[in-house]
Amino acid sequence: MMEFMLTEEQRMLRDTVASFAEKEIRPIAEEIDRTDTWPAGMWKKLGDLGVLGVTIDPEYGGAGLDLLSGALVGEELSKVSPSISISFGAHANLCCNNLKLNGTEEQKKKYLPPLCAGDHVGALGLTEPNAGSDAVSIRTAARKEGDQYVVNGSKTFITNGVIADTIILYTKTDKDAGPKGITAFILDTKFPGFSVSRKLDKVGNRGSETGELIMEDCIIPKDNILGKENMGVAVLMRGLDLERAFLSTYSLGMAEGAFAEALKYSKERIQFGKPICSFQLIQAKLADMWTLIEAARLLCYKACVMADSETRGGKGTELHKLTAAAILFTGEAVDKVCNDAIQIHGGYGYCMEYPVQRYWRDAKVNTIGAGTSEMRRLIIARELIQ
Amino acid sequence: MKIVVAVKQIPDLQQIRIRDRRPVLDNVPRVLGDIDKSALEAGVALKESTEGKLIIVSAGDKELDDTMKEALAAGADEAVLIKDCQFTGGESFLIAKVLAAAIRKIDDVGLILFGEGSADNYSGQVVSGVAELLEYPQVGYANNIEVGDNRARVTRSLEDCEEIVEVSLPVIISVVSEIKEPRIPSVTSILKAGKKPKEIYGLSDLAISNPEESKVSVDSNLAPLSERKGVNVTSVDELIKILESEGVIGR
């Protein structure tokens, strides 16, 4: 059992989040999906539970726990509502954890406490309409003017973008310098010139409000540079390995949620006078799904443990390969598990009234977001070959 | 004032399988019963209103610590644990003797709370045993407790009415599960739980000699056989009449 890898506190944390998810999220999970609306008050509830700053030091209002603990929170939330989990992940890891790793003392003191409390919502703004996998080709430009930067450009596919208060924004401060011209900023969405142009109407993870953002002569003070000018790619790369490890359990939890529905249905559905779990072809599917989930779990947890113990990530490190492998494997596993879960449900799996279709729709983004499966394969191969 | 809540570590009832008409308890994880969680939550509320201290007391075997951390995370300040392998499935009166002895060692106890029965056996015997041994009054079926002026005002949830009694402290109260909805512990309280003080006793520390043979043995534990009535009805009105006559509806 995986229990050997978890401390007692981690097990208690996992159980507490599981109870929270059952009580506060499960009763509204379908409604969140149907209305594509983040439930009112949920950020504050997550803040009071103490999970939003799960990896952030207590002096800034966090719980000071390790990455695996944070990933366990994401996993338990995802078992019930992947939408809530992905928004949690973007907030707690993409935003808060990046601030923790790269922020100055003043920046951390100012921005982290309300993020940890659930009073502010965090996001990461990297992807643009013309820059997805080719992240370093972003075009959002930041022009220095005295003590501030004037930012122009747009971002898309930004999780929590619609309602965020604090966004880690990647810009080009030197457009001719390629990756060496990228600067990361802490954008307060109240800064003049920032707006949300629209909320994207997604197939899955509905309720996690994903936005397109516009910066039109948006003014950001120079004190809000995260890291150093033109050194944004270091911030980016350092964050990506941790992001992959952390988010791999979002995929894992989703697979577990879909599997639980399929197993339950297979015991209840009677055909030919027997529950369908009596038939070998269904049994084979269940066995394969379960095994895939357990294999993914080992990879995910190992990646999280390694992410905490290694000081370096990025190219040339074991961590870089392993975290890519964890999210690649789990992202494709959840796709397969959800597919089989629908199959086991038969016709009812194809109906909106059964929850299994929600997992199936939510699953597809797992081979796309936080690096596509293709990019993840290239990352691993390049590490192997060099 | 100190408030004591007595809790019991039980097997997770959802994970028990039946084999040969008996429950299989091997390798079933241990948890805190739901009714104990309600009693704990009631204890936390009383601790907050009286600015007192909340102490959990429990008797169990060497695996007791895990579940007790859960109770500390729920808001208790300290734990008093009595550990001995004989307590697994231990007889009610032995447990009552042990808990009473441990509670005697705590000073300034004003209230002792129990769930009205444990979630596994539901014998409801231990609370009365402890009350008798400590010579404290006992109030049962409490669904509300107020404390002030060295007295407790307890609302008892009875079948057809609610009874309000006043009793002077110290008092033992057994509560119904509706008394309070247990809160979900926050991450901070989980992290603090491990650092809270624990007092651990063995049987010999409490001057209780090894018990003689158990006076009660459980012969079987089965649900009663129910046969279907097989009554046919031809209309909704007929169905309603029958249900009314059986007292199922219309009370």
Explain what you see.
The complex is a heterodimer of chains A (386) and B (251). Chain A has 386 residues and is α+β, with helices and mostly antiparallel strands. Chain A folds into three domains: 119 residues, Acyl-CoA dehydrogenase/oxidase, N-terminal domain (Butyryl-Coa Dehydrogenase, subunit A, domain 1, Orthogonal Bundle); 103 residues, Beta Barrel (Butyryl-CoA Dehydrogenase, subunit A, domain 2), CATH 2.40.110; 154 residues, Up-down Bundle (Butyryl-CoA Dehydrogenase, subunit A, domain 3), CATH 1.20.140.10. Helix content of chain A is 51%, strand content 15%. Chain A is built from eleven helices and ten strands. A four-stranded mixed β-sheet of chain A has the order 1-4-5-8. A four-stranded antiparallel β-sheet of chain A has the order 2-3-7-6, covered by helices on one side. In chain A, strands 9-10 form a two-stranded antiparallel sheet. Chain A starts with 7 loop residues before the first helix and ends with a helix. The relative contact order of chain A is 0.11. With 251 residues, chain B is an alpha/beta fold. Chain B has a single domain, classed as 3-Layer(aba) Sandwich (Rossmann fold), CATH 3.40.50.620. Helices cover 26% and strands 29% of the residues of chain B. In chain B, the strands form three sheets. Chain B has a nine-stranded mixed β-sheet, sandwiched between helices. Chain B has a two-stranded antiparallel ribbon with strand order 2-5. A two-stranded antiparallel sheet of chain B has the order 3-4. In chain B, strand 10 and strand 11 form a beta hairpin. In chain B, helix 3 packs across helix 4. The longest helix of chain B is centred in the N-terminal third of the chain and has 17 residues. The radius of gyration of chain B is 21 Å and the shape is globular. At the A-B interface, helix 1 of A face helix 2 and helix 5 of B.
